[in-house]
Structure to design on (211 residues):
């Protein structure tokens, strides 16, 4: 997977994290699911991980940096799981379409993302309004690589692959976070049936990229 990482103070490549660090991120995830991020402290995470708070400080300078690593790891796993549902060998256009829909469905169902949206939605605003995060860059980079493959074979239209991939990412924000608001009902539920919108997303991707 092509990865173009967003740099933040104190951030590290996730492939540099140790299994022990993964355990600390597991503790942070557990805390967020239990009480929400705004009520989670390094003391709470350290207690859940069975270490001292200074042990965590030696790895992450603050909770925001730890959150960035947790989110990048979490969304990366969603992408890997979505890719695992794909049958081998489809042409790039259909591979992108299926992967995009599977990833959006995975994000929509992810318990950590749902918890953040329900309790601490402001955590997502910087990545929607001000800057791209590492997860977004990684997704866009991987998509751009497949787009280039498709352009080389003639199955995807010409154009700047990075711009095309990032444009798809912009569209996916709405489908991942807001699809349920487009369903009928006085109080749309996040568990609403949005199958019809996923089908439209697949058509959107394919028609956007077809030659």
């Amino acid at each position: 997977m092509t990865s173009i990482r967003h740099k933040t103070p104190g951030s590290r490549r996730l492939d540099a994290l140790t299994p022990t660090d993964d355990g600390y991120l597991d503790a942070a995830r557990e805390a967020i699911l239990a009480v929400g991020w705004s009520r989670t402290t390094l003391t709470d995470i350290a207690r859940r991980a069975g270490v001292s708070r200074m042990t965590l400080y030696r790895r992450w300078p603050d909770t925001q940096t730890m959150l960035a690593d947790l989110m990048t790891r979490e969304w990366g796993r969603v992408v890997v799981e979505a890719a695992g549902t794909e049958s081998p060998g489809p042409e790039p256009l259909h591979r992108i379409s299926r992967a995009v829909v599977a990833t959006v469905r995975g994000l929509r169902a992810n318990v950590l993302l749902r918890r953040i949206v329900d309790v601490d939605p402001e955590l997502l605003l910087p990545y929607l309004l001000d800057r791209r995060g590492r997860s977004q860059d990684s997704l866009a980079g991987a998509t751009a690589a497949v787009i280039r493959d498709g352009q080389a074979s003639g199955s995807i239209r010409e154009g700047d692959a990075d711009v095309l991939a990032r444009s798809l990412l912009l569209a996916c924000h709405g489908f991942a976070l807001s699809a349920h608001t487009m369903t009928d009902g006085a109080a749309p539920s996040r568990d609403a049936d949005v199958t019809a919108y996923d089908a439209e997303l697949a058509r959107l991707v394919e028609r956007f990229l077809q030659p």
About this structure: The radius of gyration is 18 Å.
